[in-house]
Automatic annotation (TrEMBL):
Keywords: Membrane, Transmembrane, Transmembrane helix. Gene3D superfamilies: MFS general substrate transporter like domains. It is a multi-pass membrane protein. It comes from Friedmanniella luteola. This is Major Facilitator Superfamily protein. It holds the Pfam family MFS_1. The chain crosses the membrane at residues 20-37, 44-64, 94-121, 159-177, 183-203, 241-262, 268-289, 301-318, 324-348, 360-381, 387-409. The keyword Membrane applies. InterPro entries: MFS, MFS_dom, MFS_trans_sf. Residues 24-413 form the Major facilitator superfamily (MFS) profile domain.
Length: 416
């Protein structure tokens, strides 16, 4: 089986949206929607609060952002291992979502960068635990030919939450009529708890869905019974995809940096800072399903590479004053729509069902660890050489690595 052939054969036989948008996919999408409302009510204002309010340097912010993202690497692997070993993906996802929801209680008593940082660490630990089991639940609920659309539907609903979160935060502050952020934190907690209720009542542990392999193709890993996790990395196609994911992590900087550059470049008022995330989420929402369907039809790897091409455009526009704000946000949303779920859809056919959660966790961990490097380096470059140099360096890294990633994804090579 060839890596490019897997995606092409699945894409050519993509199913209808009606077949995908049902059951677990929609239920998990609603859980993510509510969780993202909860998270984005808080995180949409954090970069501005930490850098502009608490006066952290951009280098310190980069280290903090990268550290807490990288710290989830072990929890991703632990969550994937436990979910596969005990065949309880819903339970592990529930623990992750629950930790993120309960962490919002800490915001009511947190003060200063360290206290808020501890809350962010707890929230992202929950995210690390839940992400791979959640994606495995989605993958187990649809046929392989519909994976791109299924992840597109889920990510579109997730984007609705990311869109509503900042709006809800601003609305609550306006209704309260004070600068007390505790009303936002209480609203965030309520949204997170509601997401847990939906997960418990409406998400089920699916039976394995029969995949639709390419005609005449061999299974990626045919090992009845228990399969050791390290065998995943002995499979050439999956190993190449993990390398690609790590390289793509080096290309990516955090959302907070993109929005801070826009705020600095366009001299935006701090009160409108959360609306930048709304703009990105709107583009993500509009494009997630169409790009997921496109990935199922024409192949998933070209869509992923095209998404990172959009990110390259974001870096180039941020390095100058020429690019309008709306175009930057539109390209940034397109980047997420083309990559966030499609990369998982690209991986699923390469992983045996018994180790699906572990495989997705390995993929995401490589990205998370590489993201630590990119965030720290971007912050240091901005502080010491200026924002234009930092953005142009990110663009140069993308120009260097994207062709390599495209070659690795499309490289013929039989999976062992």
């Amino acid at each position: 089986m060839y890596l490019a052939d897997v995606t092409r054969s699945a894409g050519l036989r993509g199913g209808s949206l009606r077949r995908v948008a049902a059951g677990n996919v929609v239920a998990l999408g609603l859980v993510s929607l509510l969780t993202d409302v909860s998270s984005e009510m808080v995180t949409a204002v954090l970069p501005a609060y930490l850098v502009l309010g608490l006066h952290l340097s951009v280098a310190q912010y980069g280290a903090l952002d990268g550290l807490y993202t990288g710290a989830t690497a072990l929890t991703r692997l632990a969550g994937g291992h436990l979910a596969d070993r005990f065949r309880r993906r819903k339970l592990v996802a529930l623990v992750g979502y629950g930790l993120s929801a309960v962490s919002k209680l800490g915001l009511l008593g947190a003060s200063g960068a360290l206290g808020i940082g501890a809350v962010i660490a707890a929230d992202r630990t929950g995210k690390g635990l839940r992400t791979a089991p959640r994606d495995a639940l989605i993958a187990g609920s649809v046929a392989e030919r519909d994976l791109g659309q299924a992840f597109g539907v889920h990510r579109a609903m997730d984007a609705v939450g990311a869109f509503l979160g900042p709006v809800a935060a601003l609305a609550l502050l306006a209704l309260a009529g004070t600068g007390d952020y505790s009303v936002v934190f209480v609203g965030s907690l309520c949204a997170g708890l509601l997401g847990l209720v939906v997960l418990v009542l409406f998400v089920r542990e699916p039976a394995a869905v029969q995949a639709d392999p390419a005609p005449g193709a061999e299974p990626v890993l045919s090992a009845p019974g228990r399969v050791r996790a390290r065998e995943l990395l002995h499979a050439g196609a999956f190993r190449r995809l993990c390398v690609v994911a790590a390289l793509l992590g080096l290309v990516t900087v955090g959302d907070g940096f993109v929005y801070l550059v826009l705020q600095d470049r366009d001299d935006l008022p701090v009160r409108v800072f959360p609306l930048l995330a709304v703009g990105t989420s709107l583009a993500f929402l509009l494009l997630a399903v169409p790009l997921g369907r496109l990935a199922d039809r024409v192949g998933r790897w070209p869509v992923v590479v095209g998404g990172y091409g959009c990110l390259l455009g974001v870096y180039l526009l941020l390095s100058t004053d020429a690019g309008p704000l709306w175009l930057v946000l539109a390209l940034y949303g397109a980047f997420y729509a083309a990559t966030d779920g499609v990369l998982s859809a690209l991986a699923v056919p390469l992983i045996p069902e018994a180790l699906r959660t572990t495989g997705l966790a390995l993929l995401q961990t490589g990205q998370a660890l590489a993201y630590v490097v990119s965030s720290v380096v971007f912050g240091l470059l901005w502080q010491n050489a200026g924002v234009a140099v930092a953005c142009l360096t990110a663009a140069a890294v993308a120009v260097l690595l994207l062709p390599c990633c495209a070659l690795l994804l499309h490289r013929p090579g039989r999976v062992r």
